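Hi R.,

Here's the chain you asked about this morning:
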Amino acid sequence: MALFLAFAVPEALRILGITTVGGNVPLALTQRNARQMCDIAGRRDIPVHAGCDKPMQRPLRTAEMIHGETGINGIDVFEPKTPLQPGHAVDFIIETLLAADDASITLVPTGPLTNIGTAIDRKPAILQKIEQIVLMGGAMREGGNRTPSAEFNILVDPEAADIVFRCGRPITQMGLDVTHQVLSTKKRVERIRALGNPVAEATAGMLSFFDRHDTEKYTSKGAPLHDPCTVAWLIKPDLFTGKDCNVAIETQSDLTLGHTAVDFWHVTDRPRNVHWVYAVDADGFYELLTDRLARFDG
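And here is the predicted structure, written out as tokens:
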């Protein structure tokens, strides 16, 4: 859905490429799923690169219980026509950034940060090319969704997250504190489904499957919609409320591995390295999402 929303706004976003990583499901499926979304949306022109199949220092943890064994349960899976590009995603990130003007590229990671952490570690010169990083991951008041204190994306590769959060470039963070406010209620999902185009139908199908797990887990009226918050912020930032904070990543503790320590009240002297988003106009978010998905009617 984050990809669909990004595809829908060519007047606002120029998409240079899509990179995939081992995350909710293994890399072989995430790269296929990204290409399938390109097919559904009619955007076979965007290069898709497969990246790291496991974290920088740890075995991969996946989350099939959330999105199903395919990673996109709720829709029919097919072999996409959008080709997988031959180059590794980390090489693509490095080459694209090095060829760009300074502070001109926005990175929008919505999974574990392995590709970006690896790219920064391998070629620190890319940092000056990054305008900003807008990511989904982490939590403060909401605790964790995979352990009591850690959100999945950060937990999977805390070492990569640590590299990214200490990189010195502007970061906007969409953690569970804000994403848990954008619930895919039945009314909102049915309004999307009623659009009737292939993108809307795929969105509604995936949401309907996703809802089964998270509605039971959180006893809410719909599953939280995480990743599209990043793209929505790029399109319409006034839907969101945030605060500049220091955010640090726990990489050592067995108990709190992957925890995002958000210094919300600036009780330390650590520098404010993240714009921590903590509130959203949920109705406005779904108005934006529904309106943009309607563009695929043509």
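One quick note: The two ends are 18 Å apart (CA to CA).

Cheers,
M.
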